Structure formats: structure tokens, C-alpha cells
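Morning run. Coffee first, then this:
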Amino acid sequence: MVDWIAARPVAHRGLHDAGAGVIENTAAAFQAAVDGGYAMECDVQISADGEAMVFHDDTLDRLMQDTGRLDARPAAALKAVPMKSGRDRMITLGELCDLVGGRSPLIVEVKASWNRDRRLERRVAEVAHDASKVITSMMHANAGRGRCVTVYIVEGDAEAIQHLTVRFKGLRDTEVVRTTYVDPPEAQR
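And here it is:
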């Protein structure tokens, strides 16, 4: 199960600090998390051309120097848009897996759609299978740093969970979990 998540701090969207120019879900934020020995969580959204992009929001408006829906643009165009601050650009899940290289646990939150579009789940599974070769080969060198486990948390419908579970069958050190978000009591007032 996912009990290991509570065993060490998890850098939510990487170890980011907007005041220092390190923006959430960027290479700099994830490198800082790896350097600090943290597990990390990222979010992925689908691009127009079917790439898994590391980004939380449905739109570019909050963090990028442009506006509009993320899923309306191809990956190359998304990677070309600068952030509002900092020096990073948007990265793909594959690039993040290359950066982390199994050195720290990575939790991937799949922003699955409710419209039965399964491109994101397919692409995440493809990247996970490619990355598992790298992660598995590096696990022995990292034995003292904790489990190098990737958990795919799906925010979406039951079909998304089933889709990922089937695609990840037999993939070492991978779990698929469906999340339910509950606001803290102060947010419910």
C-alpha cells in the first residue's frame, strides 16, 4: 500500500519557492526536492498532441506568460511559453522521470478527464514503462535513500483507475490509487 508516503516529507509540486524564482512543478523545484532528499508529487495534464505535461492547472493563466487551455496546445508550444517568474519552462513527464532518475520517490497525480478521453492515462503508462527501466537499474545504488516508488494517483472517474491499473500490471514498484479530496475544516466555513 502507500504507507511509505507518511514516512518522509513529500515536496508537493516539488520543493518550490516562488519568491526565489523556483516555481511549482518545474525542473528547478524537483531538483531541489531530490537534493533535499524529499519524496515529491507532481501533476500531469494532457497536451493537444497527447503528451503528459507536468502542470497542475487546466489553463496557463496563473503561472505562464500566456493564457488559454493547456490541452489546446501541442507540447512544443507549451514548452516554449515562459513562466511569469523564474527561468524554467513547462516539462514533460518523461523529462521529469529522466531528471529524478529513481533517486527519490515520485508521486504522479494524473488529472484524468471525466469525458472518457484516455490519452493521458495511455501516455503516463508509456512513460512509466520507459522510466521503470531507469528506476529499476538505479534502485541498488539508492538503497539507503528509501523506496523509489512511483504512485499514480488519479483524479477522475473509475474507468481511469481501471485503465491505469490494467496498463501498469506487472510494472515493478508502482501503485494506482484514486484520491478523494476533503477541504480542511477552516476552508469549509
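Residues 133-149, 180-189 have pLDDT under 50 and may be disordered. Good start to the day.
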